[in-house]
Amino acid sequence: MSRFFRQAGDSDSESESSEEELMSSEGEGEAPKSAAAAAKPAMSRFLRTAGDSSDSESESESDEEESDISEDEAEKEQQQKRSRFLRTGSDESESEDEDVKRVVKSAKDKRLEEMEATGKVMDNALKINDWVAISNEFDKLVRMAQRQQNVAEPVPPFYIRTLVNLEAALNSAVAKEKEARKKMNASNARALSAMKQKVKKVIKEHEVDIKRFQADPETFEREWQAAAVPETAAKSKKAKRKAEGEEEEQDEFTTVGKGGKAIQFTSEGIFKNLQLVQEARGKKNTDRAEQIRILEKLLEVAATVYQRIRVLLALVSSRFDYNSSVTTHMPVDLWVAAQREVDQLIAIVAENPAYVVQEITDDYDELAERSPETEKDGVVRIRGSIISFVDRLDDEFTKSLQNIDPHGTEYVERLKDEKGLYCTICRAQALYEQYKQEDPLGRVIMRRLEHIYSKPDAVVHALEAAVASADIKPSIILPADGKTSTLIHSLCVHLYKSDNSFLRTRAMLSHIYHYALHNDFHTARDMLLMSHLQESIYSADVATQILYNRTVVQLGLSAFRCGLIKEAQAILQDIFSTQRVKELLAQGVHQQRYQVLTPEQEKAERQRQLPFHMHINTELLEAAFLVSSMLVEIPLLASIDNEEQRRKTISKPFRRLLDFADRQVFTGPPESTRDHIMQASKALQNGEWEKCRDLIQSIKIWSLMPEAASVKDMLAKRIQEEGLRTYLFTYAPHYSTLSLSLLSRTFSLPLRTVTSVVSKMIWNEELSASLDQAAGVVVFQRIELSRPQQLAQILADKVNSMVEQNEKTLDNKLGVTAGWGDRADGAKGDKRGEQTQERRGRGERNRGGVRGGARGGRGARFAQGLGSQMAGTQSRR
Amino acid sequence: MAAALAASLPAPSAAPAPAAPTYEAIPASMSKVIDIEAEIPLTSVQLDGMVVTKIIKHSREAHGWTAHGLLLGLDFDGTLEVSNSFALPNHASDDDDKSAKGIARYQAAMMRSLKEVQADDSVVGFYQAMTLGSFLNQTLVETQAIHQEKLRHGGVVIVHDLSQTARGNASFRAFRLTKAFFDAYKRNNFSTSSLINHRLTFSSILEEIPLKIRTSPLLSSFIDTLTETTVRSPAGTSPALATSSAALPPSFSVLDLGTSSTSRNLERIIEAVDAYKTEEGNLGYLQRQIAREKSRADAYVAKRKEENAARVAQGLAPLPEEDVSRLFKIPPEPSRLESMLLLGRIDAYAKSLEQTSSTGLVKMYGVKADSGV
């Protein structure tokens, strides 16, 4: 049989055969369902061979034979006889086929013949009561009938007739079976019951036809012939196929409607079609584009509000379904359509408060029309989730931005869609405010916040203007004075009130980011410190961690812009010492040198990447970091006088670069940002502050910084001051006095500034000198430590650290790792805490007694921890 | 080296009795003298003048604390009388096995030669030179432990402080291991619990035995004359007297401020503290390891409990409770001996530093006061 299939396919076309394969696989998918989950060994084997088009018929035949033999030894002979008979039967049909091949026949006729051949085999099997064979043949037949439907041809009456006959035969067989159970073997009996199920199902499918057939078989057949004639009259295969294609387009609903009649655009029809589409959803061979088209047409005819909501819900989700793979992004036109439809949906729901879309509802009849009147409380609740649509829409937008080349015009075009998306989000926000649903409202607001927190004011204004013009009324809008921070603030405050700690964290970070972006460094820093996020961020999810990194980096940049060099250096230090800046900011995948990422990891990594317009320029970041490192580190380097201190570097990356630059024999004119900074550092070391300033200011990347000019001025001033400090550190040993006015001339700083810098250095004990106000000079005093003195200092340090280590070990031993917070614990913890406190208190006093007041100097820790505890123990007694 | 020593040591056989009559002081109780096998615990050590000079000479010629040698003599009525000593070659660190063998051979040859000339040849301990008051180290403890096991009444170790000697007061101290430490050492168990059980600290590793130096009356009187001539030497102009006084020139070592050794002393302390820190680091590592294993074991137990609860809920028999301690190995605690010895060393250094610097300070104040007047 299968050979015949193949021939038919070959003679037809390639696409036909592929369709056949698809079909068979579909059959595989359906078969277990129809067989009520009972997997029949023989049947599945058959399916496999049928699916495998390279298998030959004889093989499958012998397979069957073998299985039968193994299944039942006793009936071996009879089985063999039968199978032999079968084979001859099929041989005959084969020879017939060969004849058929020579005669030119339409594909349709061939299919019909196939069906008839199958029917014949079934009849034969029926005679000897072999239900296994019948079951196999029946499957074949059903598949053929299905194919018939796929090419939009009415089901032949032969099929219907076979069905009716089969049902009758089945009933009689079952009746017989009840009387003589013992006679049938196990596999046969199983096949029989499976058949019963299958036939019942198929009959249900063709109920109408069968009824008509039973009523008047002849007219039914004639009708069919009449329908088939025009097609058979078509001469060339090509033309016929074309017609088929047209028919396909015209008769989209015919196939769905099954009856071969024109679809009725009534409300019932809509629900039925909806259900069909929904059932086909997620199945292997569903044509998603076609489904979308169906739904679009349905939307056009949808009359009532309820219908429109239902269709829209289905349509949007089927649009999102269009791409099955996670990696590729949604086509832009689809996205735009989905966005429009979500808008529409929200608008409908907002206009009709009697209709509510909810994720969880009571069960209701999918096929019935509902309206506020039919419901008990006058509110129609429909299953669906607008918030997930909005989420998905936003995610898809991000995904498409990730996948589009950021340097092309397409990216810019795509970015323009953000306005629409922003409006949609605001609409959803308004809707949920109307509903007063807190959880989705929080999510929507978070989405909104994420669209604006990192944007400059102008962009936010544009987005808000779009919202205002679209006449959307979320409760939080841009205030009249146009201050974006007020808007962000009110959004964030709303999120702080929500119960979701995840949203709170993200809102907090976005808020801080926004402040940092607007150069409000101190507010941003205080918020970050008060949030205590740095302690718990390690346990957060990756996206939040990335947001945290971005916030911290932006904070550093803000400090840099404000001229707070030390703070900027300290903040940026952490992220730069990892040397994986790009990865930490999710702006690029890090090349792993020693380990290879698995494809899944890499995929996850790629999904995390931020779209290009959100990036923080890493080169600018590096320039800021290196320049602030230079300003901090160079005076420090100059102040160092022994090896021990040299090792205590502040900025390792900068030190490494500097060492590398030192080692180079020839230095050409600077090209990269790093070159500039390195040469500037050297100039600063040599006291040539003007050269240093020029080099730093000629870095091109500053142009990307907002307020570049003021930043450059600030840098020039810093360089003057730090140049003065470096000069003093480097050359102080060579002077006994140094005139302040000379210093002020050399570094072209006002005398006041010079005096203040020098005084500060003296106060910080960086410079052992004094100011002689009368003569206007700095008087240097030199103290040189003798070798024993140095050693004694080192020893003091070491012993100090040893004591600290001991304390730590003691803490570990006593198990007070929780610190002084354990007093707040429950009863048990409290008890243990008390014990240890007591022990420690005692020990402390003993030691204190022995050593006397010498311990008073060992400051902060004692005062914080043990001191308070000791007070506690003493007061208890 | 310790092992080689042990191999070469003679079995604790009876020392030759004829040696006894050379001493004129015979105690009243004759029975004690005759019964040389009696277990009379050592109460003091007596060093012969010759031994003192030999040790000083050897230590000064060798460098630092590498000088060491064997003590020969006899114990007598609770007093260990050390009558002779000889130096052992310096054990270079390079070829340990070979040098140990060489030392053993040398020692055996030396003993044989001594026997041939009828000198004392019973080993009673060993001596060790040191600087700045610190002498505790692994080798010393190991060697002494072997001696204490093999020698009659347990040997003694005599330490000689070079730096003190250079300052004008020759310092000799005699030690042996305490019972508690010896017990712990034999079990080779220096874990924290063992230290607590044996009440061991660095100061209870060794116990000191009082030590006195004995010279023959003739020698004593000669030394007396030496000091007398020294006093007189600046006055007299006789060349004969001048040569005799050259053996003991007037010493101004009292005026030395002793600051030269301070920096060395400090360096040594720093070294010792660093070494101690690494030991501490080892312990810290162990602690972390234990914590990690513990958390893993806890997680395992919790998981097993959960599983069992699930199984019980499903009506299955719970899995047997396995011995968690067998699944998760707690790493063995490193020996605390080294850190204990290091602490001892730090303590000794600190003490000697305190001593020298305090006397140095007093002297400096004295000088200042003098110059001020």
Automatic annotation (TrEMBL), chain A:
Top-rank taxon, per record: Eukaryota
Record's compositionally biased regions (Gly residues): 849-859
Q: Where is the composition biased (Low complexity)?
A: 32-42
| A GO cellular component annotation in the UniProt record | eukaryotic 43S preinitiation complex
Q: Which residues form the PCI domain?
A: 612-785
Q: Has UniProt tagged this entry with the keyword Cell membrane?
A: no
For this UniProt record, the keywords arranged alphabetically read as follows: Coiled coil, Cytoplasm, Initiation factor, Protein biosynthesis
Q: GO terms for biological process?
A: formation of cytoplasmic translation initiation complex
* Main function: Component of the eukaryotic translation initiation factor 3 (eIF-3) complex, which is involved in protein synthesis of a specialized repertoire of mRNAs and, together with other initiation factors, stimulates binding of mRNA and methionyl-tRNAi to the 40S ribosome. The eIF-3 complex specifically targets and initiates translation of a subset of mRNAs involved in cell proliferation.
Assembly and binders:
Component of the eukaryotic translation initiation factor 3 (eIF-3) complex.
Q: Tell me what this protein is called.
A: Eukaryotic translation initiation factor 3 subunit C
Origin organism is Obba rivulosa
Automatic annotation (TrEMBL), chain B:
> Where found in the cell?
Cytoplasm
- InterPro entries this protein is in? eIF3h, eIF3h_C, JAMM/MPN+_dom, JAMM_MPN+_peptidase_M67A, MPN
- Entry's Gene Ontology molecular function annotations: metallopeptidase activity; translation initiation factor activity
Residues forming the MPN domain are 45-181
> Is Cell cycle found in the keyword set?
no
| A Pfam family hit | eIF3h_C
Q: Which GO terms describe its biological process?
A: formation of cytoplasmic translation initiation complex
Has keyword Cytoplasm? yes
* Alphabetically ordered keywords of this record: Cytoplasm, Initiation factor, Protein biosynthesis
A cellular-component GO term for this protein: eukaryotic 48S preinitiation complex
**Described function:** Component of the eukaryotic translation initiation factor 3 (eIF-3) complex, which is involved in protein synthesis of a specialized repertoire of mRNAs and, together with other initiation factors, stimulates binding of mRNA and methionyl-tRNAi to the 40S ribosome. The eIF-3 complex specifically targets and initiates translation of a subset of mRNAs involved in cell proliferation.
Stated family? Belongs to the eIF-3 subunit H family.
Subunit field text: Component of the eukaryotic translation initiation factor 3 (eIF-3) complex.
Q: What is this protein called?
A: Eukaryotic translation initiation factor 3 subunit H
Q: What is the phylogenetic placement of the source species in the record?
A: Eukaryota, Fungi, Dikarya, Basidiomycota, Agaricomycotina
